[in-house]
Amino acid sequence: MAVSTIDNKIEKKPIQMKPGLIAWFLLIGLLLLIGLISAFRVFSQGLVLTNMSDTVPWGLWITIDLSSIALGAGAFTLSAIVYLMGLKRFQPIIRLAIYVGFIGYTAALLTLVMDIGRPDRFWHPWVYWNVHSVLWEITWCITIYLTIMIFEVLPVITELKFFDRWPWTRTAAHKLHSIAPLLALLGLLISLLHQSSLGATYGIVKARAIWFKPSMPIMFILSAIAVGPALTMTVAFLSEWITGKRRIPHDILFTIAQYSGFALLVYGYLRFWDTMATTYYGRTPSVMQALSLLRETTPYNFSFWVLEIILGVLVPAILFLMPRFRRRPVLLVIGTGLAVMGIIVNRWNTTVSGLTVPLSYSPGVLYQAPTGSYFPNLTEWGIALGVIGYVLFMLTIGMLFLPLFPKEEKH
Amino acid sequence: MSEKLNGQESPPKKKKTTRVEVDVTRRDVLTLAGIAAGSAVASVALTSGPLSPFAGLQREQLTAGEESAGHGATGKHHWGMVIDLDRCIGCEYCLRACSATNDVATDKPWNIVVPEETSTGVPFYFSRPCMHCQVAPCVEVCPVQATYVREDGVVIMDYDRCIGCRYCEVACPYDARKFNWETNTEHNPYIPTWGIAEIPRRPRGVAEKCTFCVHRIDQGLANGLVPGVNPEATPACVNICPVGARTFGDLKDPNSKVTQMISKNPTIVLREELGTRPSVYYIPPKEGL
Questions:
Q1: Has residue B117 got a pLDDT over 90?
Q2: The pTM is what?
Q3: Does B271 touch chain A (CB under 8 A)?
Q4: B141 close to A (CB below 8 A)
Q5: CA–centroid distance for A335 within its chain
Q6: Least CB-packed of A37, A55, A402, B16 within 10 Å?
Q7: Domains and CATH numbers, chain A
Q8: A121 vs B contacts (CB less than 8 Å)
């Protein structure tokens, strides 16, 4: 496939700036502007501008990090399917999957740089090692995986007409492409590791009862590999609707939806037992106290049962699997939207709920550390909008300029 | 086989015999044997070898109570504190002296004092510095080793290395860590009444915590003083306490005041079940907790 695209030079007409496209770019520009202003303010005045506090030191930005990395999981899942399991049928979607993953990971890094107190020291984990820290391991894995993804995206970029004047870039890039299976294997290992250890970040914190359980890493990886590919599928459908060209065979997309549906069911099943074991059957006092506090003071119950489980897992699974629904792109896209929402709510619930519950360490019965309360303020939303702007910008220029799709199918 | 099943109308003529073909070559046998041997070696290496994740666990279990390799005070001293909950009168002098000496922001003291109650309703006062855990969760999660347990058991921060991710603050079971959300420019109301600033303020964007006044310990030892005995070498909160509720000293020295108190009194450590092995011991109220 790669070779064929070289041969028939991309005969793309110059992009016409229709009013709709101009408006779209203006919107993206506005989002990016809001993001940049917020980023400038945070860099100059510090994290005091946020609503985070010593009781709830992590908030919206960590939620964005975790979510966008999880949603980028389509890249490694689909790469593994094509290059390791040898299901070449899915080859046409690989480039798109890797590109979407690349956007997800870079979005996470952008937010992360905002979130650390000393952005000027972002390189410290590379130099000063604490091999016992999951966060150190995550930093390294994400660095390595992002490098792998850059290697995987480079061949796509060098196919641009722009690179005609340097033919060697193309030969070099296609040498790189020939080691794609090796990159996929490495990417698979690294991704499994860090997607899980993002969950372990919470699961190993023994100070907080509702976090401290071995299922955390499993839940994170499972939800990521269930929803990541579905997001790639949805991006393919959306680009088809917007450009009016069918570029990835629908049967591939339907199969991906089905796969995601099964994975969501597996995730939902384990989540069910995770909940039952820790609450109904286990009844650890600290966990029960924490959950009843969350029930009383926050919409935790609603967001868990309705948003995370029913709308985020069950409904998408039904839409992806029921014969009546699973071949209707609109419903698949809606299902993906719900599943993505489920992931984001899950990451939010994990982070903020765990921090809302006060620590209890006093030997007496009276004193309790302050109960956390947190809702992001305008500055934090501003950064979030900026990140959304970045994601939309990257998706748009990818669709417009990069050869992400195989040559158009004839219909 | 399937053809026979399909032709069910014809009655079975004779007893069926099932033949199982064993198609195993020498190569298969060798491969399987190799896998089996490899698994055996791997399982032994992973459960008992030096690379095993369980190795440290076993050592720790065997040497419970002592300092195990890689954790805690490995040097000559192990600085610790004993807080007598019966003596404390809740005057907050320790909080003020600490905030002055270490120039801490008033809204996030390193050392807190709160009114408390036993389960039988007897009031008492509870104060909490950093526990200086020997197996410290904050130290284990820090991605850049900006915080660490010193050879003398004190847990301190390297403010020049911290990236401000706040994972330590999230992981600390005792709420003992605070983050510098902004540059601290406020006037410190505790200076000079309760002491003078002995260390510089921490920059914006890093985490900070109680240090057991480590600058005094180091300076004192260099001048031949004994921390816990000579006030110049002892944490500010211990010196200022008007009722002697806090005692400081070397947990490794059998004759130090802290060791004596621990051996003569019932003591507890906070959240012992977490296995963090704090260096701060509490003598509970005599009515019990």
A1: yes
A2: 0.87
A3: yes
A4: yes
A5: 16
A6: B16
A7: 19-359+378-401 (1.20.1630.10)
A8: 144, 161-164
